[in-house]
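Milestone M4 deliverable, item 7.
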Amino acid sequence: MPTEYRVLGQSIPAANTLTTLYTVPTAKQAVCSTVAICNQAATAASFGIAVRQAGAAQTTSQYIAMGTTVPANDTVLLTIGVTLTATDVVSVSASTATVSFNLFGSQIN
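Output delivered:
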């Protein structure tokens, strides 16, 4: 099984809107190694990250971060090592539309 090391997803979601950052393609697996959360505003913001197995409907039990603060004009790096299988979804949200998310890892074909 070849492994691709790559940027798995990038997004700047609308304020308070849960948005898909990455969906594992059919017949593939992934390891999410690091997520960078960058607040591009002069005021602090909060963010959430959820992992939805097989694209299930969102529930609070799926959050791996919720209401976590990212300071003004700063970046938070989370080394998470989350393993995912086909159709699993990583979703993100932020309190403002000035927070970007970048997910790095490997996709296993």
